[in-house]
Every structure is written in structure tokens, then in C-alpha cells.
Amino acid sequence: MGKTLRFLIPLLIFGALVALLSVGLMRDPSAIPSTMINKPTPEFSRPDLLDPSKLVTHEVLRSGVTLVNVWGTWCVSCRAEHPELVRLAEGEGVNIVGFNWRDDRSDALAYLRNYGNPYSVNAMVGDTDPLIVNWGVVGAPETFFIDASGTIRYKHTGPISREIWDNELRAIYEQLEAES
């Protein structure tokens, strides 16, 4: 029995590892839960990207349904989603507030000049800024749906494409619009 057990234990360990890996591979990597859902937006006050003498505060998120988009020029996925954000802002009238994260201001301004500016305002957010921690941001791009009362209602991790907007996010946005 000793020899059989010596061969059986590694086989059982291997089977358990395969099962754990299989479960992990079946999960959606963009479905990162947020503890901020249905909570008020954290208070903040950060310099505006276009005019650093002005401040962007949490009050800007209490004037209707708003999308808060965390982005940076260094972020490849942010570049992929940018045309869709421009389309949403210009073509559908979606109010988008940007959190420009870990960027050089001149790079961010040049980027918006070259590719369009979908943001009604853009807060400059540093690399280790508590604002990012308070919102529970783990990477870019991340987009939060804020209702008219300033409550975070949904978080989308990853780039927003036309397909994702049409098939998943539009319904959430329209529901929030109907509630306000």
C-alpha cells in the first residue's frame, strides 16, 4: 500500500491544481468586483488637465448621469477605447469625466488635441494618488457609471468598444437616465 499511496498523492495534487486552474480560466478577467457599487463617490479635488488653476471636484458628478473614465496616454487599451468614448460624447451626448492617471500633462494634452477630447472635465491624478485607491481602481481603463445623485452604480474594467457599449453598457446607462 505504501507504493500505491506514493503515486496516488502526487496524482491527487495534480488533479486539484488542474481543477483550480480550470475554474480560474473560466472566469471573466474584466469582472473585478468593486466595493464602491451603490456608495457615494468619494470626495476629491484635483487640478483640471486643461487648466490646472481650476479644480475638478466630486461635485461635478452630481449633475446627471456621468461616466468616470480612468485613462492614460501610456495605456494601450485606453487608446483602443478612445474613439468609442469620442463617439459616445459627441454622437450620443454621454457626459464623461476623465481621471487622467499617471501621465505627463503635456503628453495628455497633445493626445487629446490629436485624437479628440470626449471629456467634459479631466482631473489630473498622480501615480499613487489616494483618489485612485479610494475609487478601487486596479488598472486602466476603468469606467464607473455614476447616477444623478453621485452614487457609483456600475464599474466596467477594460476598454469600451462599440460592441460592449451596444450589448452591455447602453442598457445600464439608459436605466440610470430613466431613473434620474
Walkthrough of the structure:
Helices cover 43% and strands 22% of the residues. It has helices spanning 2-26, 76-92, 105-115, 130-135, 162-179, and strands spanning 39-40, 45-47, 55-57, 66-71, 96-101, 119-125, 142-146, 151-157. The strands form 2 sheets. Strands 1-8-7-4-5-6 form a 6-stranded mixed sheet. A two-stranded antiparallel ribbon has the order 2-3. The chain is globular.
Characteristics:
180 residues, two-stranded antiparallel ribbon, 6-stranded mixed sheet, alpha/beta, 8 strands, 43% helix
Low-pLDDT windows of residues: 26-30
- Beta-strand content bin: 15-25%
What is the CA-CA span between the terminal residues?
Answer: 70 Å
What is the helix content? 40-55%
**Radius of gyration of CA atoms, rounded to a whole number:** 21 Å
Number of helices: 5
Shape: globular
What is the H/E string?
Answer: HEEEEHEHEHEEH
Content-based structural category: alpha/beta
Short overview:
The chain is α/β, with parallel strands linked by helices. The chain has helices at residues 2-26, 76-92, 105-115, 130-135, 162-179; strands spanning 39-40, 45-47, 55-57, 66-71, 96-101, 119-125, 142-146, 151-157. A hairpin with a 4-residue loop joins strand 7 (142-146) and strand 8.
Topology at a glance:
Layout: H1 2-26, E1 39-40, E2 45-47, E3 55-57, E4 66-71, H2 76-92, E5 96-101, H3 105-115, E6 119-125, H4 130-135, E7 142-146, E8 151-157, H5 162-179
Parallel strand pairs: 4-5, 5-6
Antiparallel strand pairs: 1-8, 2-3, 4-7, 7-8
